[in-house]
Amino acid sequence: MSKMRAIDAAVLVMRREGVDTAFGIPGAAINPLYSALKKVGGIDHVLARHVEGASHMAEGYTRTKAGNIGVCIGTSGPAGTDMVTGLYSASADSIPILCITGQAPRSRLHKEDFQAVDITSIVKPVTKWATTVLEPGQVPYAFQKAFYEMRTGRPGPVLIDLPFDVQMAEIEFDIDAYQPLPVSKPSANRVQVEKALAMLDSAERPLLVAGGGIINADASDKLVEFAELTGIPVIPTLMGWGTIPDDHPLMVGMVGLQTSHRYGNATMLKSDVVLGIGNRWANRHTGSVDVYTEGRRFIHVDIEPTQIGRVFTLDLGIVSDAGAALDVFLEVAREWKAAGKLKGPWRVAQGLPAAQGQPAPQDPLRQRAGQTAARVPGNEPGVRQGHLLRQHHRPVADRRRAVPARVQAASLDQLRPGRPAGLDHSCGTGRGQGRPVAQGRGTVGRL
Question: Which partner from 20, 140, 153, 297 sits 20 to 30 angstroms from 445, CA to CA?
Fold first, then answer.
């Protein structure tokens, strides 16, 4: 056993858990952590200009590579409250980040001392776990629990609040005896997957909805392989964008209030069985739930049990990590294909040979722009939030595929009820604001 400051032990634990980069701003109440970072070494620090910015930097760093944990550091009081937006963003998108705040000494917490805010109570609604550590000996194990919470089940952010005197206190700690806690993730079983695959295989127009859980599980390649094996087209959510390449023949676009493509909406309208993996049926994706669910059956795979059935009643729910579920889906699909049980219903419905692995050029929902009929008047992108505009700046051949006129009309009439065009977005301006999407069709919104 070695004697060291509690904050030195915390840095050693972060290193052992795989942290190599932190983002933040020094301040009096958190300066012991900065001295420990310098003393122990091994963790690079990026100086931010605002603590909220540091929290978003930590989230972005987590997203860059599977297994990353972004760390955000700030002093007491306003630094913690500045982190709330970043914590909420990470919580909503299921991104694990570790936020560390300094705090006034324990003896002053109840005296309304300078910047002695109850930060744990403030952030509890937007974190998986938040704590103020009041005993120095608990510091390394609070960090151990934090990493366990971030990685177990649905990922999300945590916050550890460290009083100044707790950081500075000496404790006995042996990093060589430290071991990260094993992470537990639920996995789909064969019975569940066989039922789901039977529903998909019996459908005329099955569809896959790929959510951010697939990216969190580093399982994008598995999704693409499953889609190619079964021939089922894929619609990614905004969080699942990138799970399948934009130019892949089975990538049929997106649907939603601010992310819709006409060919994505048309494909959704035509589907009869939908399998969602690692998504949460957020209203930015579904729009009107009645329109979204009418005439089709749904299967949902999610790592968080409370997400199953939260938005609408499902035909089949499977609690599983997205990557683990796709492993079983691939195993069963390969066996069924080898045994001749996998009919490839989508390809058959399109008049394609069941054994063919890619859509044929004559498939109208997947033809590229320039190969099909002209665009229908009024199909402007409309109003988009600034962070979504990049989606419409990709090459036309990658982002826009033509849809038959009868399906385009259906898309407008069925998928855009409710609100005036341009008024269904929370911010931004554009040429579509405040006017109908198509002349003579009245005021419409977006699914």
Answer: 297
